[in-house]
């Protein structure tokens, strides 16, 4: 089966840089995704890594190391609106492409 | 606005009630999903539909009954629920390109409280 581990909460101040880690165990790996969810809102897709290395999208970057079964989401120039929960997810290849298995989420609190 | 809408946004029901949750996607996607999100737990996949056919039932109790009349609409019929079923129920859709980057788009969810 699949399992993912993330820290439950991270705090930072505006303008800072924060890294949210995710370690995973899967029977077959087809990439690591990241989703953001504000309180009361829908999870929204942030990024996807299939290969090792860093993917950058504006202030957000995502990193993957398949040999270490590890990835992280890097948020730069933090803003108050970045306060949200962040979930990493992998595909459950035992049942096909469609089943995403999510981590428990990391709650990011950005303070002034 | 993600293109996936859900109604109602909030629902309170007794254990003997029957209610339905509705999801509609305006993205032209072929796959639709129901997830359950409980406090301090990962999102749990409940059901997957591909081109209106159920392709995944993640060992969900029979008191939850999905219905997918077409690729744009998905329902979750609820009956004789338990208080532990109180959670946020999220609908999602995807193109189902059978590719690794088949991104799922989520609706805002229905906050369900079972008394």
Distinctive features:
heterodimer; A: 112 residues; B: 115 residues; 7-stranded mixed β-sheet; 4-stranded antiparallel β-sheet; 11 strands; 56% strand; globular
* Helix proportion range of chain A: under 10%
Low-confidence stretches of chain A: none
Please state the average pLDDT score of chain A. 91
Supply Rg of chain A: 14 Å
Gap between N and C termini of chain A, in Å? Answer: 41 Å
Total strand segments of chain B: 11
Q: Give the biggest beta sheet of chain A.
A: 6 strands, mixed
Classify the beta-strand content of chain A into a percent band.
Answer: over 45%
Order of helices and strands of chain A: EEEEEEEEEEE
What structural class do the secondary elements of chain B suggest? mainly beta
The low-confidence parts of chain B are none
Strands of chain A, count:
11
Q: Could you outline the blueprint of secondary structure elements for this entry?
A:
The complex is a heterodimer of chains A (112) and B (115).
Chain A: E1 3-5, E2 9-13, E3 18-25, E4 32-37, E5 44-49, E6 53-57, E7 60-65, E8 70-75, E9 84-91, E10 100-102, E11 106-111
Parallel strand pairs in A: 2-11
Antiparallel strand pairs in A: 1-3, 3-8, 4-5, 4-9, 6-7, 7-8, 9-10, 9-11
Chain B: E1 4-7, E2 10-13, E3 18-25, E4 31-37, E5 44-50, E6 53-57, E7 64-70, E8 73-79, E9 87-94, E10 105-106, E11 110-114
Parallel strand pairs in B: 2-11
Antiparallel strand pairs in B: 1-3, 3-8, 4-5, 4-9, 5-6, 7-8, 9-10, 9-11
């Amino acid at each position: 089966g699949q399992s993912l581990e993330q820290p439950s909460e991270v705090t930072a101040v505006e303008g800072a840089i924060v890294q949210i880690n995710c370690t995973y165990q899967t029977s077959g790996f087809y990439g690591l995704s990241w989703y953001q969810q504000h309180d009361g809102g829908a999870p929204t897709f942030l990024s996807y890594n299939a290969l090792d290395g860093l993917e950058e999208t504006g202030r957000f970057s995502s990193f993957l190391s398949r040999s270490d079964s590890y990835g992280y989401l890097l948020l730069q120039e933090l803003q108050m609106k970045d306060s949200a929960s962040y979930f990493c997810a992998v595909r459950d290849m035992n049942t096909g492409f469609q089943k995403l298995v999510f981590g428990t989420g990391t709650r990011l609190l950005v303070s002034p | 606005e993600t293109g996936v809408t859900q109604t109602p946004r909030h629902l309170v029901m007794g254990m003997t009630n029957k209610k339905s949750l509705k999801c509609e996607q305006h993205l032209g996607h072929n796959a639709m999903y129901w997830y359950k999100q409980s406090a301090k737990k990962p999102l749990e996949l409940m059901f997957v539909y591909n081109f209106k056919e159920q392709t995944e039932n993640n060992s969900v109790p029979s008191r939850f009954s999905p219905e997918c009349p077409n690729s744009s609409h998905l329902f979750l019929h609820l009956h004789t629920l338990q208080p532990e079923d109180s959670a946020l129920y999220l609908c999602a859709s995807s193109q189902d390109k059978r590719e690794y980057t088949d991104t799922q788009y989520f609706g805002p969810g229905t906050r369900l409280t079972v008394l």
